[in-house]
Amino acid sequence: MNKPRTLTLYALLIIFAGCKTTPKKPEIIISTDIPNFWQAYDMITSTSDSVLQYKYLDSFYLDKGTAGLSAIREARNYTPLDYIRAIKAYPKFWASIRENTLKADLFSVQLEEGIEKLRVIYPDMKPAKIYFTIGALRTNGTTMDSLVLIGSELAMSDTNTVSSELPEEIRDNRRKFFDSNPIDDLVLLNVHEYVHTQQKPALDNLLSYVIREGVAEFVSSKAMGVASAVPAIVYGKKNEEVRKKFEKEMFYGHNIYQWLWGDAENDFGVRDLGYYIGYELSEIYYEQSNDKKAAIKKLIELDYTNETEIEEFVNGTSFFSATLKELYEDFEDRRPNVVSIQPFENNSEHVSPRTHQITVTFSEAVSQEFRNFDFGPLGEEALVRIKNIVGYSADGKSMTFEIEPLAPGKHYQLTIGWGFRNLENVPIKQYLIDFKTSSE
Predict the structure, then answer these.
(1) Which pLDDT band holds residue 178 (cuts at 50, 70, 90)?
(2) pLDDT, position 8
(3) Which of 386, 381, 372, 351 is nearest to 415 (CA)?
(4) How far apart are CA 379 and CA 411, in angstroms?
(5) Residues 6 or more apart whose Cβ sits within 8 Å of residue 374
(6) pTM (two decimals)
(7) Peptide bond before residue 343 is cis, with ω within 30 degrees of 0
(8) Is residue 325 packed enough to be buried (19+ CB in 10 Å), middle (13-18) or exposed (0-12)?
(9) CATH tag for 338-436 (out of 2.40.50.1020, 2.60.40.1220, 2.60.40.10, 3.40.50.300)
């Protein structure tokens, strides 16, 4: 009686042992937003009822959206109206891009391989997720915290994509940046974005931004073993004037989009040249390093809030013609400044409350296109309020503006800000107008 029972128990143990499952591999690439979008698209385009169109967008796409869809909507301020307008305005575009976006799962395999290649050269890589989403044509890809967000409607376009309906700005972007076949660079682009999820945030200045972008581009290209797909890098390597121009402009504070992320006019007619600057700094640093894996780790983990660390990194490459300190001193020497104000001297304590105009004189002619005023240290309560700009002197060195009535016995301030620039676009040194009115 005991023997069969023992055999049965043994058999059960064998069965349970055979049923053991290995832990499920974490999902790092999510593409469920793609089929959801097309389901919503088909419903939206099946009716002219705008109430139903919004209902379908919500129920089939937005309400079922992933964390990635929520994030890309936040990053690019996509509203339901943006989606509905884009769907209705560009039917040929959407028809031409549909098949490519539905290949997201095929690209997921290649992306996973790319992430593993990145892990080989940077073993300390932190977990992050990649989301294939569909937006309203304002980005082909970006990041938010540990999320890589693919704007598939742009990132997965190719030579067969119909762009004739799209606004000129978007068509220009495709020509200038994406090239004719963005889908070919999809994996490299998103390994670049994955690197961003490993980096510390940049400070809000041009040098920090170009280093961070250049590091991501260099490291992703190194991991994948391919050349960068950014045309600006090839152009910069062939044109030394790009470096010289950046040296002069890196501290301006008002020109980020002339170097990154936009089509603002520049002297070269090539967008995103800041990528070249950061890429070149990264490449030189890497080539100079004996320990290549340590160099990659250093590049990715740069602390942009640590001024000494960034300065040592940049100066150590000898890429620029002088140290950052010397280049900044040159910038300060080139900046115009305010030399006087009228009809009273600055810091006066008995200014007439009947004063209705102020004239500011600069050390050189300033551009009449740009200006800005700001509070002083005392804040809005003490602000001199400007009624209107009266005009500039013939030589461009003085500007007169009319002010609102002043109260007697009050302390006033007004900052002449960096928005003022000379004719070569160099911002002025900030100047604080500070005075007190008499009690008459």
Answers:
(1) very low
(2) 52
(3) 372
(4) 11
(5) 414, 415, 417
(6) 0.81
(7) yes
(8) exposed
(9) 2.60.40.1220
